[in-house]
Fold these 2 entries.
Entry 1:
Amino acid sequence: MGHESGADVTDAHSGGVLAENAALRIIGASADFEDAIEAAKDAAGKTPGVTGWSGYSSTQVESIRDVEDHARDIAGNIQSSAEEISSTDQESSGGFSESDGDLSRPINHGPYSIY
């Protein structure tokens, strides 16, 4: 990108779709983890008396749920941002298309320019 601000709305929306697909793959990991811990606990049996399954499981499941929530939020935020940018571009495009006069000074040149 050059010396401008903006976004490619199509790319942003595509990124949101990819993030949503990734979130869908992640969601359910906490339940899978709980099932795996329960299976390990059952497989270990009561002897030799391994403890700590519940505490470990609840701590880790909480962290995994946070990841699931973040993944869902990121996907929604990317797509919402793309829609908002598109809407803003549409609203402001009329003002730029009506301008047909030349500026009296060069653009992007001067004491603060990177040129």
Note: Helices lie at 9-26, 29-44, 53-97.
Entry 2:
Amino acid sequence: MDTGEAATGWSELWGELIEAFDFLSSGLFSLIWQPWGQIQIATLLGVLGVTFLIARRIEPVFEKWVRGLETNRRTMRAYAILLRRLHLVFFCAST
């Protein structure tokens, strides 16, 4: 393999990556400044806030229930992981 071709290949790849990032960043910024993009971002933040509040409300009840269980350690670990990620579970379920 010729080193000149490898360098040209990497520089072409690097140039394409830079163009892709420029396109992505310009597209993202144009989305933020358009009204529909702002509505989508506000909706996403609203859903995130509501799911956070729901998780904060349900988490103590769920934790009390889990502490009352008499089961093996593996199941308790699974419940503990679920308990720590409860707000993400509600967010994914709501979207």
Note: Residues 1-7 have pLDDT under 50 and may be disordered.
